[in-house]
Amino acid sequence: MKQDLLDCQARIVPYIHRTPVLSSQLLNDLAGASLYFKCENFQRMGAFKFRGATNAILQLTAQQRARGVVTHSSGNFAQALALAAREVGTIAYIVMPRTAPQVKKDAVSGYGGHIIECEPTLAAREKTASDLVQKYGATFIHPSNQDEVILGQGTAALELLEDHPNLNAIFSPVGGGGLIAGTALAAHYFGNNCDVIGGEPEAADDAYRSLIAGRIETNTATNTIADGLRTELGDRNFPIIQQHVQEIIRVSEAAIIAAMRLIWERMKIIVEASSAVALAALLIEKGRFEGQKVGILLSGGNVDLLDLPFGQTKAG
């Protein structure tokens, strides 16, 4: 896996942005630690998921590319795969629930993706995607539970560790598990005793429960503002998480909004609520990391500016 990560990094370099690592003295003081924010909100299409989508597409054969790719997503991976497909000259069929925000559908269409709408259930998404694979002979690419995607997402943490090799810990949001699994691999092979810790909404805490139970748990409801984290773990990323992730910390909706507001106000950058979960998790347990060097993955910055949450709570 170590060489796989390096090969993946070399493969996608011509296509991705090497995103900056920012810091804030105010947030350092608040946390009592030195924080290093890996800003994937500045990645192409606005999120880390372009890394994994690009790595997966680049490993398809010419024949596979000629038939296109398929995924199901209501958010960032839909945009990521559409853009990655455009970059290599193949077609992307994107299954999206009919209830997905129009702004997200417009973004996918803007990148050249062909949207096929379905009912807003996982079963409907999976069946529609399967039908497209059968109809067009296209290759299905999973948003988070596929080795090529996991390795691609891991390059964000790999870059962070190249810039700051002596981090004591890296905090990552947890949704479908691709980012934190890739981060865990990067920290294991390229970190110096660097722990990986997940942040997860209390309202969608399947990964937290999965680690405790030793098997993949599901959510009966996902009523969280962190809409990018409403997905669940898979059989490819969960074993990596079990082996290499030290802990998952659950955070409240108020803590997510407060952390998001801190980043907007103090760092002057736009991040989505899912990104803020990592900082929220650190701030809840900040006494444990006092004096340490901590990386925080800001996973993306795709927000609906007409639906901001800051009137709901105040930053602490």
What would you note in describing this structure?
The protein is of the alpha/beta class. It has two domains: 2-48 and 146-298, Rossmann fold, CATH 3.40.50; 50-140, 3-Layer(aba) Sandwich (Rossmann fold). It contains 13 helices and ten strands. The strands form two sheets. It has a six-stranded mixed β-sheet with strand order 1-2-10-7-8-9, sandwiched between helices. Strands 5-4-3-6 form a four-stranded parallel β-sheet, sandwiched between helices. Helix 6 (102-110) links the parallel strand 4 and strand 5. Helix 3 (49-58) runs parallel beside helix 5 (76-88), helix 5 (76-88) packs parallel to helix 6 and helix 12 (253-267) crosses helix 13. The radius of gyration is 18 Å and the shape is globular. It starts with a helix and ends in an 18-residue tail after the last strand.
